[in-house]
Design brief:
The protein is of the alpha/beta class. The protein has a single domain, classed as Rossmann fold (3-Layer(aba) Sandwich). The protein is built from 12 helices and 13 strands. It has a 6-stranded parallel sheet, with helices on both faces. Strand 4, helix 5 and strand 5 form a beta-alpha-beta unit. Helix 4 runs parallel beside helix 5, helix 6 packs across helix 11 and helix 9 crosses helix 11.
Length: about 325
């Protein structure tokens, strides 16, 4: 059994790679230098030569709000090319099984909470990352279209906010959990009396450890066709992946401070933007199929902080 993981060096791809190797599955991987996923002919030749048993599409051009707003053309073009080339070339190579990893940003900016899969395409997207979201929606629809026309078994999973080992801890471009971990750790080392967090601390967010995401991904990929089709629809087949629980940014900040050992004061700057008040996924579809997250937020934060400390030498350069 062999699997090709596109994006094996990213946080999710690396976690899936670890779990597959633990199951004695041969993992085929190529760096960007060896295989440009935006090049159709290169991807076509690679998959025809390797012919893995299944493909995991975890590769994507990602970035924060500033990057998305500064380079919208790059984000929509690169992501469309990556997924189009991999999905179509997988079909041409006779690869029947594929898993496409998307993002919860596919859903409308304003929608009911928790967000069900049926919310897709029911309203305007968040403008700051619309090009990226459109590309991810296209990936879902490509999988569905190839299934409908050619009888392939291409599936899609949409994760909530992820964190864990191999995350991006950059001072300016990181997401909330790695950003808080680095700030509180550095404040502890510098013996700072106070750390200021942007916003009121009132917004609620859902977080999933990347190892849980990897487990869920392989769970969905391994479902029998009858079970998968019994819980999805041909034109609404993607599956939300999350914990089904959220936490305020205020409570999260205090939890990260506890995990990192920071004992100073935490202040919230209400003059800074909060973003959406809440963003929680409805994970009942996945739960009904038999999977639930197993890593608690505090346990996951402890695990992530230990990884951060062990990798200080490389992270400090960012």
């Amino acid at each position: 059994m062999a699997a090709y993981i596109a994006g094996h060096k990213g946080m999710v791809g690396a976690a899936i790679k670890r779990q597959l190797e633990a199951q004695n599955v041969e993992v085929i991987a190529r760096s960007h230098e060896d295989l440009d996923l935006r090049n159709q002919q290169s991807v076509r030749n690679f998959l025809k030569n390797e012919k893995p048993d299944f493909v995991v599409v975890a590769a994507a051009k990602v970035g924060g709000i500033h990057a998305n707003q500064s380079f919208p053309a790059d984000f929509i073009y690169d992501n469309l090319m990556i997924e189009c080339n991999i999905i179509n070339s997988s079909f041409e190579a006779g690869i029947h099984r594929l898993l496409f990893l998307g993002s919860s940003c596919i859903y409308p900016r304003e929608t009911a909470q928790p967000i069900p899969e049926t919310a897709l395409l029911t309203g305007p997207l968040e403008p700051t990352n619309e090009p990226y979201a459109v590309a991810k929606i296209a990936g879902i629809k490509m999988c569905e279209s190839y299934n409908r026309q050619f009888g392939t078994d291409y599936r899609s999973v949409m994760p909530t906010n992820l964190y864990g080992p191999d995350d991006n801890f950059h001072r300016d471009n990181s997401h909330v959990i790695p950003g808080l971990i680095r700030r509180f750790h550095e404040a502890k080392i510098a013996e700072k009396d106070e750390v200021t967090i942007w916003g009121s601390g009132k917004p609620r967010r859902e977080f999933l450890h990347v190892d849980d995401m990897a487990t869920a991904s392989l769970f969905v990929l391994g479902l029998t066709s009858d079970v998968y089709r019994g819980h999805t629809h041909p034109m609404l087949s993607h599956i939300n992946v999350g914990t089904g629980k959220d936490i305020t940014i205020c409570d999260l900040s205090h939890l990260v401070a506890k995990v990192t050992g920071y004992l100073g004061a935490i202040r919230f700057d209400g003059t800074k933007p909060d973003g959406a008040a809440r963003k929680l996924l409805d994970v009942s579809r996945l739960s009904d199929m038999g999977w639930k997250a197993s890593i608690s937020l505090e346990q996951g934060l402890c695990d992530t902080y230990k990884w951060f400390v062990r990798n200080q030498a490389s992270i400090r350069k960012a």
